[in-house]
Amino acid sequence: MTLPRRIVAWLSPLLACLGLLAVWQVAAMLLATESVPTAWQAIRTVPEILGDPEQLGNILDSIRRMVIGLALAVAVSIPLGLAMGRSARVAAFFNPLLMMIYPVPKAALMPIIMLWLGVGDASKSLVIFLGVSLPVIYHSFQGARAVEEKMLWSGAAMGLSGIARMIRIVLPAALPEILTGCRTGLVLALITMVTSEMIARQSGAGNILFNAMDMAQYDTVFAMIIIIGALGIALDAAFDRLRRRLVRWAEPHQEILLGAS
Amino acid sequence: MQDASSRMHEDVAARSAAASARRPAMIEIDRVSKRFETSGRKSHLALSDISLTVGDGAFVSILGPSGCGKSTLLYIVGGFVAPSEGIAKVRGAAITGPGPDRGPVFQEFALFPWKTVLGNVMYGLRQQGVARSEAEAQSRRLITMVGLKGYEAFYPKELSGGMKQRVAIARTLAYRPSVLLMDEPFGALDAHTRTRLQNDLLEIWERDRKTVLFVTHAVDEAVFLSDKVVVMTRSPGRIKAMIDIDLPRPRRRAELLLNARYQKYVVDIERLIDNGRDGMEPP
Asked: What ipTM was estimated for this complex?
C-alpha cells in the first residue's frame, strides 16, 4: 500500500510540471511570436546562464542577500513575536506599529531605503528583512499565545525563571507555529529579493531578468523565471523536510495508541 | 440534619486542632481571600476568609461544586496566584511564588509535548542540577512505579489520557516536592481509568506519605483518598465544613465500598453539599 502511494507522491508534481511545460510549448508554437519562446528554448538557456561565471555570481549574490535578510528577520521576529504573545504590554506597544507596516508593500520602501543606504547589499537585505518579518512575528505571536498556562506553571514549579520559561517552554511549544511562519517568510524572502533587484538594478537574479527583458532576450527572461521558480521550490521543500524533522512530536499521529489506562 | 453537620463540624475542629499540635504544619492558610477584577469595574469574590492548616504527611481534599474557588485556593498554595488578602505559608514561610517544594498535577496534564515520557519525567531533576545519568536512572524507576515501563520513548500525543496523567504524576514526584498539589487530576478521565489511578495514587502515597492537597468535586473520591475533607460553598468560596475521615489504611476500594462508615461519610457529605443549595431543603 505504501509503495504506490510514494510513487504517486513523487509522480503527481512531476506530471503537473510536464503538463505545464507541454501547454507552454504548444501555446508558444501556436503564437509563434518572439516574446514567447517555447519551453524547450527556455530550458535550453538555463545551463547557459548557470555556466556563465558572471551570471552565476549574480544569482549567488541574490541568494546571499536573501539569506542575510531572512536570518536577521528570523533572529529578530521570533523573540519579538514570542514576547508579544506572552506579554500584553509588549503586544500593546508593538501592535499599532506593525499594523501600520503591514499593508505597505515592502518594495515600495525601496527608493527611500536606497536613498539612505545606497543600492548595495544593505538596502536589499533590509527590504527582505522587512518582507519576511511580519509573518514570522505573527505566527510566533500566535504560537506563544496558545501555550497552555499550566505548562508554564509546571515549569515554574520546577524552578525555571521567567526567561528560562520563555526559551525552554514557550519556544519549543510554539515551534510548530513559528516554523509555519518561517516557511511563509522563506517564500516572501524570494519574492522580495527579486522585487528589490528590479528596483535597484546592480546585480542579482532579478537584475539579469530585467536586463534581458530590456534587451528583448526573451529566452533568458523565461529561463530566469524557471531558475528562480526552481530555487523557490527547492528551498521550500528543503525547509519543509527540516520542519517535519523538528516538530515530529506535534504531527497528527497515524496510529492511535490505545493504552490500558 | 443541620444539627448533625454542625456537631460533626465542631467535633472535627477539636480533632484537627489536636492533630496539628502533634504534627508540624506543612501548609497554613490564614484568612485568605481572592478577588478577581472583571471587566467594567466589577469584581468577583472567588474566595472569602479561608483558614486551613494541613499537617505534614496529611492527605487533604478540597471538595466543592465547580466555581467555588477550590482550584484558586490550590493555585495560591502553589504560588501561581497571589491572594488579595491574608497569607499562605509552607513550612512556616510565606508563599511568594512557585517552587519545587510544591509540585502541581493538573487536570489538563500540562506535559511538555516535545519531550518523550522519559524527557518529561527527567525535566525537573535536570533543572535541579541532577546529572543526566542519575536523573535518567531515577526517572526510569518512577516510570516503572507509575506502570509505564516500556513507554519511555513515547511522546505525549501517543498516550491515552490516563497514561498522560501517570506521566504527569511521575514528572512531579521526580523532583521530590514536600507537597503534592493535585487539581482535579482525574477529572478528565473515564470512570474505569479514574478508579485505577485513584488506587495507584494511594499505593504510591502509602509508601512515602507526602503531604497532598487534592481538589475534586467527586465526594466518593475525596472520602476514599483523604484523611480530611474540606467542603466548600460557592460564590464566594467559603469553607462549610471540615470532616476527618477515620477509615483504616491501607484502603482498598473494593473493601471500602462495602464499609458502612465509608458509606455514611459519603451520604453525610452529599447531604451537607445539598443543604447549601437555595430552596433545595430535603423533606
From this structure: 0.88
Nearest-Cα distance to chain A for B128, in Å, is 8
Residue of B121, B157, B213 to mutate, interface with A, max A Cβ within 10 Å: B157
Residues of chain B in contact with residue A260, where contact means CB-CB under 8 angstroms, are: 162
Q: Pick from B19, B105, B71, B55: which is nearest to B217 by CA?
A: B71
pLDDT digits (tens, 9 = 90+) for B129-186: 999 999 999 999 999 999 999 999 999 999 999 999 999 999 999 999 999 999 999 9
Q: Do B102 and A175 touch (CB under 8 A)?
A: no
* Contact between A158 and B127 using a beta-carbon 8 Å cutoff: yes
Looking at the partner chain, which of A151, A169, A261 has a beta carbon nearest the beta carbon of B193? A261
Q: Are residues B199 and B75 in the same domain?
A: yes
pTM of the shown model = 0.86
- Where do we find the cell 511549544? A173
Distance, CA of B178 to CA of B24 (rounded, Å): 13
Residue B179, strand partner residues: B102, B211
**What is the Cβ-side half-sphere exposure of residue A181, based on CA atoms within 13 angstroms?**
27
Query: In angstroms, what separates the C-alpha of A88 from chain B's closest C-alpha?
Result: 16
Q: For residue A94, what is the domain's CATH number? A: 1.10.3720.10
Structural domain including B151 reads: 111-175
